[in-house]
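Input sequence (832 aa), recorded before submission:
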Amino acid sequence: MTDVQLVAPLAGWVLPLAAVPDPVFAEGMMGPGIGIDPIGDTLHAPCDGIVLTVHAAGHAVTLDAGHGMSLLMHIGVDTVALQGKGFEPLVTPGARVAAGDPLIRFDLDGVVQAAPSAVTPVIVIEGEGVALLDVAAEGLVAVGDPLFRIVAADDAGGTGRIVGDMVSRDTVVLLPHGLHARPAARIVAAVRASGANVTIRSGERSAAATSPVALLSLGLASGAPVTIEARGGEAAGVIDTIATLLSAEVDAGPASAPVPAPSVRQPAIVAEPGAIGGVAAAPGLAIGPAYWLHVATPDLPANGEGVAVERARLSEGLTAVAAALDMAATEPGQMRGVLNAHRAILDDPDLRARADAAIANGMSAAAAMMTAAEAQEAQLRASGNARIAERADDIRDVALRVVHAILRTEPAALSVPAGAIVLAHDLFPSQLAALADLKVGGFAVAGGGPTSHVAILAAGMGVPMAVAFGDAIDAVTDGVTVLLDADAGTLVADPAPERVAAVRSIMAARAAAEAAALVAGDRPAATADGVPVHVFANLGSVTDARNAAAMGAEGCGLLRTEFLFLDRTTPPDHEEQAAEYRDVVAALPGRPVVIRLLDVGGDKPATYLAIPAEENPALGLRGIRVALARPEILDAQLRGILAVPDVDRCRIMVPMVANVDEMIAVRTALDRLRGELGIGPVPLGAMIETPAAAATADLIARHADFLSIGSNDLTQYVLAMDRGNPALAAGIDGLHPAVLRLIRMTCEGAATRDVPVSVCGGLAADPLAAPILIGLGVRTLSVPPARIPATKALVAGLTLAAARDLADRALAARDAARVRDLARRFAEESGR
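Predicted structure, token format:
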């Protein structure tokens, strides 16, 4: 019969497990137990046993208590981040200990100051069918005082907390970009629907699967081993779902894609004197007075007026902000997506649990909310993933909304002078929304990143932004004239008058050219010496197509069809596809539409295709390889395209081509279906994304009506750098001479068959890259809808001879940074 008495391993205040400010413990996901808020500095053995493990960071120990039971004692919350500082283990694994023997000595003051909480859970982590009896009531205990008894559930007489059956599975994260926001959100949704308590563990770190922030803070990269544990509800089923989501990237669905922010790049090698280097986030130039925007956190009452009062205030604040976000999110535009993300943060049970626990420890509701947010921000910033760390600002933005709602105050009104360059250490989406109508000249931010929500919003607003300037920006004083070059990611304080005059001239010329391009509608673009260079749009939905038409797109150079295939359990039939393609084509009357065949696999697998797990998905079954392996998918998509009433305006593009045989196979399938349906020729093109396709462009051109370069994938394959890896982001630049040489090779190979070449990747929208592409022989640039007027204006200011000369010099440059420097000088010399 199991009956083990545990005594208090710490002197301190006993709390129920639910009050531990970490849902992994509070929700009993690791097992039943109790929490102690310590007042001493030594952790002792709560019973006789054998030491199983001592964490490398010294903050946790597990103990074999006999009878098939193991105990975990974890000093504080998130103390693994202290990396052993302040902890002194006094035992080693394998040691036999008696109740009361010292296990770990620690710096209590250091834990209190550096960790979210010092509350120490004492947990029964192994022990089938046991219950806790005679649990100590809330209040002070001394070392050795009775804490609780562990007995067999059958002997518990129906009292205590029973450990139910737990289902677990070991798996590996196969997402090419690791566990990031999108799959984390889907895991949370699946867990909430299942009714199970689910924990995901990796090494010594764990997270409740009901909290997207907690999942992100694990920092799980591709290849990371994890254990999924579930209790109750549909435990087995939800584990299957999570395992799938950890191995299959699911796209965001049909929502209109935002204007992509540039990749993170190092500042230019040659910068003007006095320039502060940052990272480009939204392109453009701006000159104006510096205006420092400081985030004022309202005065927070430290102590609460009682747990019941403060919990009511927290609930009222959360409800008010939820209603405001729901109302604001009904508005169209990119802000809608941001606000939906903020709503998910507000619903995060981990954030609420941390705030609730802080209230239980005597804090006011407002202070508790900020404390909880700061803990989550620290988790994300410590994840080691730059893109995940960027979401920390969103958490603070949401928390400040709740604090103002609790205190019934309003954020300070923003009154930035028109044309000013806003400087900030951090900038939140809510602030950007408040500044949207103030005609701000530009933004320069000490922190942040190029894929943050504010960067995406700034690009959508057409306002230049550069980020990640660091502490150097602190030297810029309010009111001084600054020059923001968001194309290069630099900021100059008090620039020379002649420099200001030159840049103002460039800005005026750009504005006039873009206005003229917009007025011209979809009239074909051409260089100053009359060479046609078409400007098409990259689309992902019907909404994108309508926006592109309004911006004067000459056609669609890339319709991503993945929005029809992903985030569902079965593939769409040809009739559903035909309806969507018809609407996109109708939104661009009289203009050609290039429809890319399904491009899944790698970072965009569709779960129903059952693509086996691969060691390197980016080099595996993806793109046209998937369609050729599943001919019924290819046939349905081709039938859907051929069913479009205006099929004569459709072009079909084959993704991820690596050899001629793939083009021949698709052409054969297309011709067979055309013959069955009695439809005339439909142009078929190849997407050049692999070095093999670029090197054999002359051979592929024999079987293609056009070639389109996907510069994003081509760059990552040429440079052998995963474009989803933040650690490599600074080096992934499509203006690397190696990439440019393959683009030149593609254009030369296509010219042997008189086949046109376009670029539909990120380089086409880069104002420094476009002249080089034209000089290399590209005659169609396909860009996001918002970039169409600027790209047309850029083309109109070029001559082919100058573009060719720039391209030749770029091919001879040593690296991408030097190519960008050449391009910047060219832009200035040509008045752009």
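Checked by second reader. Residues 153-164, 249-271 have pLDDT under 50 and may be disordered.
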